[in-house]
Amino acid sequence: MTELPAVVDALPYFDKGYDESGIQEAAALLVEEEMRRYRPTKNYLEHLPSLSGPVQLKFETEIMRTEFDRMSNRLPMELLSMKRYDVPPPPAGKMGDLRAWQEAIENAHVQLAHQTTRINNLELMSEYGCNA
């Protein structure tokens, strides 16, 4: 079986010299040694302070609580609403109303400008972003 190259993308930095001779092997030996010494138990995090209560409340937002409740109750996630991207014509009762048509056209222009900006941002990101 062919061994794939190691890609470390979980760190906020990238160590230099990892490709030098012997470095990968030394790191692998350190990991293997730690794995031999470590004997996980069912409750291996028991000695750590609980993240519930005051600690959890420091960062938990109302949106997070609502989402946690939804997941706890095994409810499905709401589908993404595409309504904000609609460009509807004036209501049936206002088809002859000039102002209603002007508002519909203005909405279409705003939607077009927004989508154009999004396309520009994606093009810039693909050219200059971190994965360029």
Automatic annotation (TrEMBL):
Keyword flag Cell inner membrane: no
Compartments in which it is found: Nucleus
GO CC aspect terms: catalytic step 2 spliceosome; precatalytic spliceosome; Prp19 complex
Domain of life: Eukaryota
UniProt keyword list: mRNA processing, mRNA splicing, Nucleus, Spliceosome
GO-annotated biological processes: mRNA processing; RNA splicing
Pfam families: BCAS2
Chief location bin: nucleus
InterPro entries membership: SPF27 (IPR008409)
Assigned protein family: Belongs to the SPF27 family.
Name of this chain's protein: Pre-mRNA-splicing factor SPF27
Protein encoded by which gene: SPF27
